[in-house]
What we know:
EC number: 4.3.1.12
CATH class of the largest domain: Alpha Beta
CATH topology of the largest domain: L-arginine/glycine Amidinotransferase, Chain A
Strand content: 15-25%
Shape: elongated
Bound molecules: nicotinamide-adenine-dinucleotide
Number of helices: 21
Radius of gyration: 33 Å
Distance between the termini: 102 Å
GO molecular function: nucleotide binding; ornithine cyclodeaminase activity
CATH superfamily of the largest domain: L-arginine/glycine Amidinotransferase, Chain A
Keywords: Lyase, NAD, Nucleotide-binding
Structural class: alpha/beta
Strand order of the largest sheet: 27-36-35-34-28-29-32-33
Organism: Phormidesmis priestleyi Ana
Number of strands: 36
Helix content: 25-40%
Cofactor: NAD(+)
Amino acid sequence: MTHDMKILMCPPHHYDVDYVINPWMEGNIHRSSRDHAESQWNQLYSVLKKHATIELVEPQKGWPDMVFAANAGLVLGDRVVLSRFLHPERQGEEPYFHKWFEDNGFTVYTLPKSLPFEGAGDALIDRAGGWLWAGYGFRSELDSHPYLADWLDVEVLSLRLVDSRFYHLDTCFCPLTDGYVMYYPPAFDAYSNRLIEMRVPAEKRIVVSEIDAINFACNTVNVDHVVVMNQASDELKAILSDRGFTVEETPLTEFLKAGGAAKCLTLKTIEPRQTEPKASSILSRVIRLEGHLLDSGIVNRALDVITTGGGSFQVLSFDLGMQRQDISVAEVKVTAPDISVMDDIMGQLIDLGAVSLPRESTPAQLDAVVQDGVAPDDFYVTTIYPSEVLVGDHWYRVQGQRMDGAIAVTHESGQLVARCKLLRDLKVGEEVVVGSKGIHTLRKAPSIKKGTDDFSFMGAGVSSERRVELVVEQIAWDLRRIRDRGGKVVVTAGPVVIHTGGSEHLRKLIQGGYVHALLGGNAIAVHDIEQSMMGTSLGMDMKRGVSVQGGHRHHLKAINTIRRYGSIANAVEKGVLTSGVMYECVKNNVPFSLAGSIRDDGPLPDTKMNLIEAQADYARLIEGADLILMLSTMLHSIGVGNMTPAGVKMVCVDINPAVVTKLSDRGSVESTGVVTDVGLFLSLLVQQLCKLTGEYALVK
Ligand SMILES: NC(=O)c1ccc[n+]([C@@H]2O[C@H](COP(=O)([O-])OP(=O)(O)OC[C@H]3O[C@@H](n4cnc5c(N)ncnc54)[C@H](O)[C@@H]3O)[C@@H](O)[C@H]2O)c1
């Protein structure tokens, strides 16, 4: 009888457990019975013969696992991608399978030698969508997936395996007729589970128990509505039967000793190509990445964003810059299961600097604001990168670029204006960009040259202690250049600057003309004034390092004194405050802004307890900054980071690496993190500036 389905098998004449390359083989070396294996294999053969035409590849002595024909390669239409086995124990099977495919008229594709991929053991065609579920994590490499997508012209969804018992995808995942998927979720990482859940509707997902999973229920051969497997629990059989499947069990315990069962022992050699995926909501967009893609890791991050966001990708082209200074260009096709996943991925790609190709550009979608201070649903959330928006057939540069805003499109004096606005500032009647179409961000490629004006020295890196001195040299160099050309440096500082003895150094920086605005909270000013008036910081004698009796009240006394005079500036003018960081700000006309917080004592009369006013004041002082030095205040530094557009260099100094990483990790290539004691940092910085200017003190 002829069948529509053809299955390749390899008789078990040389099968044995001769080595250990998966957890199932442990303790089973030479423990399987050849006779028993032959009879189980023959029984499987007879069962399958009822549903498919069986073809055979000749087994070879010395290659015991050749019986697992699923790992011969991956067939789609008349093409096959030959396996590249990870373990040398199986690599000798490759030429025999290669010959069989060639003899049977397939076009054979071979991967580079160092790129493992284990055929249909790790790649399964979805029976409804036509895409390829491809596993990686143990045997096959993720890097092999783009080759599969390219050679077989198929959409690839990568799934990461995390449980070594389920080392091949077909041990824990089985796409079935009518779009069902039978699988064991704990075998996959969280992202892969999410991807499965996004692609396969809940009613089509058949989750198996651990018992069924270790009995290799997912290692099933499915032909039409028949599923052939080693063993299934009554519960699983009932579920499958409810969904219209007939379960045929055939014991394969001898092969379980080597980590395989029904599906591993077979390879479907008829896999018709589905040209158009049936799932109609699947969307594709082509993005273009440009810059020092490899050096900056943008490519990896972009592909990560796509797969972790629930999409898949196909690299259409990749022109690698030939010289170190050359830029590279990549075109990547992004596919997502629906519009919301696509928008989410695109939003993140835009943050990375991925740009839609102009030919794909459709105008931005606008939606009206119907309530003051509230954006329409799905509004586009802005990033720190300069952006343009396509309205009608014109691109408009977004003004007032900052993170976490919305793009409002308005008419001002007859001109269309796109402006970045905070939600609270949106007004009824304005239109706001929704979705992610028609947005273009301009991201400067990170410099890789040394000795330029850029912070190329450290890139967006986070330094360790041993590198601090080198970083300080670079920062001193930049401060000097910015000051000398009339640029602007803003300092954000927390009270730790005072506690660690950094005050005298910060003072010198202000006196030396290196600071053009100071931002902080109540505390930096309170502790500075306490130190200046009473010689203590939080009650500790700063010179002797011991607590002073009654010292714990000193900071309140300092606050009280300033309150009496109405402001810090008045206290300076009246000769009450005669030294310190705040004194120097007043004396040197360096504007400062103190933003309030719930934990503030007093507060000082200068501290702005209306946070909206405080944010506006910070934004005013940050405007035009070339460099922001963030000194040991997580609260104020994050606040400042959020309102700073790309292009402003940021240096974040904190003793806690997590804080530094958080601040440096805004995708901004201009940020540098320094993990160190802020007092030490400031003292090194002043020393270095003295060296640069050839003076013993910054100010004589
Ligand atoms: N008396 C007061 O009114 C008072 C006192 C304290 C804080 N506050 C207010 O609370 C808010 C948050 O205060 P904050 O900015 O101090 O706290 P924060 O937690 O935001 O930041 C302090 C940072 O300093 C880091 N740090 C600690 N020791 C360090 C060292 N030796 N060198 C380098 N970094 C070090 C920490 O890791 C942390 O990230 C501010 O608005 C502040 O004004 C008020």
